[in-house]
TrEMBL record:
Recorded name of the encoding gene: metXS
The species this protein was found in: Halopseudomonas bauzanensis
Protein name: Homoserine O-succinyltransferase
First-listed, main subcellular location of the protein, grouped into a coarse class: cytoplasm
Function of the molecule: Transfers a succinyl group from succinyl-CoA to L-homoserine, forming succinyl-L-homoserine.
Domain of life: Bacteria
Length: 380
């Protein structure tokens, strides 16, 4: 008998799609060949009408649900939403989750070998943007025999990808679900990303992105970047409830360099752990892709015009204490869809957890997402 919960997809194995067809990139360069690592949950039906694409956020990857081994203590990053009877019900849907190009969890990225040099790409890996991800995902859909997604779903940076799918491939998805996201970053968001990038770039072990050649990694810079990012993903209330001003010991040390507050210890742990499992060049690439995304720019900053090609029905969800991707940005997107005469539903969830709320099993959020997904019709 499996030790996994009844609503889990259980054991899953990553798969690989190898493309030998060059992929032209928005930056003007191209990838002559590349690999995408992905996982699938559920079964594709005979009419191929029940496929759902999951797009990940900045530090996400292909492992969205289930377990890789019987010994795994934690499931995939969105296991709260994907599985039998869950919001994205694998009894109904064939769910596909991938690691984006430029990632560091198996898909071709800066830590991969450049076939032209036989060495790690490092800082020479080309810039990848949201449009490039969507184009590579469309090729993956072709490989899987999916002509039209029942839905493309994503939170944060993943929500930008879902939106770009609706704009660029309007005939290839029926529903767009954009959660805790925006059509473009605010100046403050870009500023946070730049601070994080500078922490990495100025690390002595960065070596212009070619740290692999020196047998080192910019741990300190990447750890600091993660600390900055993690602060912005939580709300003030969430941090207060989790840590307050609690000390690690009963007295103050009066030492500038000591770790005395629990929140300090937590952030240092998060930074250290992240620096050991994530690639610094990938972090730089992902944050820059966030900064660049702005579909309205090519339309005189008129978002409604940029959304004119959309035919999918859309669900836009925001969270009240998310100050990184504030509800105002989601309302802006929903209003632009309405102005473009598109079918859109908008919901703001009252949640204390900040931006990270989109990853958590908050009852009202799960109920709303479940209700929407259950209304998506799929053929036999």
């Amino acid at each position: 008998m499996s030790r996994f919960p009844a609503d889990s997809v259980g054991l899953v194995s990553p798969q690989r799609h190898i493309s030998t067809e060059p992929l032209a990139l928005a930056c003007g360069r191209s990838l002559p060949q590349y690999e995408l690592v992905y996982e699938t949950y559920g079964q594709l039906n005979a009419s191929r009408s029940n496929a759902v694409l999951i797009c990940h956020a900045l530090s996400g990857h292909h492992h969205a649900a289930g377990y890789h081994s019987e010994d795994d203590r934690k499931p995939g990053w969105w296991d709260a939403c994907i599985g039998p009877g869950k919001a994205i019900d694998t009894n109904r849907f064939f769910v596909v989750s991938l690691n984006n190009l430029g990632g560091c969890h198996g898909s071709t990225g800066p830590s991969s070998i450049d076939p032209e040099t036989g060495k790690t790409y490092g800082g020479r890996f080309p810039m990848i943007v949201v449009e490039d991800w969507v184009n590579s995902q469309a090729r993956l859909a072709d490989h899987l025999g999916v002509q039209c997604w029942a839905a493309v779903v994503g939170g944060s940076l993943g929500g930008m990808q879902a939106l770009q799918w609706a704009i660029h491939y309007p005939d290839r998805l029926r529903h767009c679900v954009a959660i805790a996201t925006a059509s473009k970053l605010s100046a403050q968001n870009i500023a946070f990303n730049e601070v994080a990038r500078q922490a990495i770039i100025t690390d002595p072990d960065f070596h212009g992105g070619d740290y692999a050649a020196f047998g080192v990694i910019p741990k300190r810079g990447l750890g600091l970047a993660r600390m900055v990012g993690h602060i912005t993903y939580l709300s003030d209330d969430a941090m207060g409830q989790k840590f307050g001003r609690e000390l690690r010991s009963e007295r103050l040390n009066y030492d500038i360099s000591s770790v005395e507050f629990q929140v300090e210890s937590y952030l240092r742990y998060q930074g250290q752990e992240f620096s050991e499992r994530f690639d610094a060049n990938t972090y730089l690439l992902m944050t820059k892709a966030l900064d660049y995304y702005d579909p309205a720019r090519a339309h005189g900053d008129d978002l409604a015009k940029a959304l004119a090609p959309v035919t999918a029905r859309s669900l836009v969800i925001s969270f009240s204490t998310d100050w990184r991707f504030a509800p105002a940005r989601s309302r802006e997107l929903a209003n632009a869809l309405l102005a473009a005469r598109k079918d859109v539903s908008y919901l703001e969830i009252d949640a204390a957890q900040g931006h990270d709320a989109f990853l958590l099993p908050i009852p009202r959020y799960i109920q709303a997402l479940s209700s929407y997904m259950n209304r998506i019709e799929v053929d036999a």
